[in-house]
Structures are given as C-alpha cells and as structure tokens.
Design goal:
The N and C termini lie far apart (about 65 Å). The protein has 2 domains: about 30 residues; about 90 residues, OB fold (Dihydrolipoamide Acetyltransferase, E2P) (Beta Barrel). About 5% of the residues have low confidence. Helices cover about 30% and strands about 30% of the residues. Strands 1, 2, 6 and 7 form a 4-stranded antiparallel beta sheet that branches. It has a 3-stranded antiparallel beta sheet with strand order 3-4-5, with helices on one face. The protein is built from 2 helices and 7 strands, in the order αβββββαββ.
Length: about 130
Amino acid sequence: MSKDKLKERKNMKIILGILIALVVFSTNAFTYETGVQQNPLQVQYFYMISSSVYVQFNPGSMPGCFSGRGGVLDRDQPQFKELYSEVMAMRYMGGKMGTVYYSFNPDRNPNRAEWPDCVIAGFDFQGP
C-alpha cells in the first residue's frame, strides 16, 4: 500500500472513533424525568406565548418543576404538533391515566422552580 492510502486509512479510523464517541456520550445526555402517574392526568391550565406553550397538569404530576405540575412545550421541538395535540385532547376530553416525561432546563435554579425550567418531552398513557 502507498503512504497516501495508509494515511487515508488512519484518518478514517480517527474519524470513526470520534463519531462513535459522540454517539455514546450524546445518548447519555438525553435522559428524561418521569412524573408521578395520575388517574386521570388532566390539563388544568395552558398559556400560549411566542416560543412555547406553558402547560399545568394535576398537582404533583411533575416533581421539581413549577408548582410540581407545570412545564413548557417548546415550538422548536420536532414533535411539538403531536405533543400539543395530546395536550388539547386531554384538556377537552377530561384526561386519561398517564404520566408526563420531561427534562430540566440545564440553567434552572434548583432552589426556585420557574415555569420554563421543565420541557415536556412526552406522555405515557395507560388503559383504553
């Protein structure tokens, strides 16, 4: 093999190693908190602002978040439309047994929860 081919092969191994490391370390960064199961999980209140929708559920449904029950749907989330549809269905159909999945804003103050501190990531509904 020529020196150029060996150098190219070595560079490819380095790039592959970097890509594998990025995948391994980035998947660990996307962990979600699991709220307390509610029966039914109900939307108590929602408020639309320019870049997000604040949603408040039953008391205690989102520990560590604003009032233990509120968070935001960010309009930049890839699944925003689906999550917003589920929130509207819960709001107008009275709720369903389920759990909220959410992530904490990394810049939040753990001593004082504010409404943008938690981003709603999904729901887990049980039953028919």
